[in-house]
Specification:
The chain has helices at 3-29, 258-263, 290-322; strands at residues 51-55, 58-59, 64-67, 74-79, 88-97, 107-113, 130-137, 152-159, 176-179, 189-196, 199-205, 213-218, 221-222, 228-234, 241-251, 270-271. By secondary structure, the protein is an alpha+beta fold. The longest helix has 33 residues, at 290-322. This is L-type lectin-like domain-containing protein.
């Protein structure tokens, strides 16, 4: 064998080894299977390893459906184990689809919170939560003007004292957000949530390009260790199928001591650049319709006529009695 052929073979196997290290580190070393979900899903129907589910959630080998495309449904999926790493990244593959072309809802949320398996009004999970919510809202409940279109992706950090204002689509308490288009597409859609050194970065792959597009980056976000990941969805008068295709958790900690991880378990979730919740102002009451005005005027006329008839009858009767004296 010539020296040239030997170098070529060594280079070839070196390339294969490099690729193996890259893919292997992502899939095996850094991806924690106790916090991840990868198709085909095992334990179909009753038991899902490392995860609990509740409500209308349905598990199949190819997808986990949080809600069907039916009214007034909700479902959730929660990881068993708390996250003990400070820095991490999550990739979620999902698909939201349904029969509605113009009206659909409501959306789903990805949670990193203190409490798990808690149902409630915020996309199927509890309000006044402690932790982080990444919300993919498909329907605008806002009665006033928005500065963005739906579907909309946003983040909220809560210390357990604030309420998610569903009527205002959470715009009073969000950290940041961006418009997204992910409904009724023929391919898988993905969201990446990265939390590293108190920086929260959210990106999406919604156009089947196999590349991440930045949605927002927020600095000075403090999240404790020991919280749980979950996903939940809900429908109301409007509906959609909310399907989860994958959930991959990557541990990206470097040189973080065990003591530091334990110390961070006492952190109260907060974001220093977070705007304080603005006052909830009710929308102005709508003016009366023409029909309502007509009936009110008709009522006033009838009452006035009745009073007039009574007064005339009363005075006639009184005058008639006077003539007998």
């Amino acid at each position: 064998m010539t020296h040239t052929n030997t170098n070529w073979i060594l280079a070839f196997f070196g390339t294969l080894l490099a690729l193996e290290l890259v893919t292997g580190s992502e899939n095996n070393e850094y991806m924690k299977r106790e916090h991840s979900l990868v198709r085909p899903f095992q334990g179909v129907g009753v038991i899902l390893p490392h995860w609990d589910f509740l409500g209308n959630t349905m598990v199949t080998s190819n997808y986990i459906r949080l809600t069907p495309d039916l009214q007034s449904k909700s479902g959730a999926l929660w990881n068993y184990s708390p996250i003990m790493g400070r820095n991490w990244e999550v990739h979620v593959g999902f698909k939201v689809h349904g029969k509605g072309n113009e009206l659909f809802g409501d959306g789903f949320a990805i949670w990193y919170t203190k409490d798990r398996m808690q149902t409630g009004p915020v996309f199927g999970s509890k309000d006044h939560f402690s932790g982080l919510a990444i919300i993919l809202d498909t329907y605008s409940n806002h009665n006033g003007p928005h500065n963005h279109q739906h579907p909309y992706l946003s983040a909220m950090v809560n210390n357990g004292t604030w309420s998610y204002d569903h009527d205002r689509d959470g715009t009073h308490t969000q950290l940041a957000g961006c418009e997204v288009r992910f409904r009724n597409v023929d391919y898988d859609t993905f969201i990446s949530i990265r939390y590293e050194n108190d920086v929260l970065s959210v990106s999406t792959d919604l156009e089947n390009r196999n590349e991440w597009k930045n949605c927002f980056v927020v600095n000075n976000v403090e999240l404790p260790t020991g919280y749980y990941f979950g996903m939940s969805a809900t429908t109301g008068d409007l509906s959609d199928n909310h399907d989860i295709h994958s959930f991959k958790f990557f541990d990206i900690d470097t040189n973080i001591s065990h003591d530091e991880i334990l110390q961070r378990s006492n952190i109260i979730p907060n974001a220093k650049t977070f705007e304080a919740p603005r006052e909830h102002k009710d929308d102005p009451k709508p003016g009366m319709s023409n029909a309502k005005i007509f009936f009110i005027l008709l009522f006033v006329v009838l009452v006035t006529a009745g009073v007039a008839i009574f007064a005339i009858s009363y005075f006639k009767d009184r005058n008639a009695r006077k003539r007998f004296y």
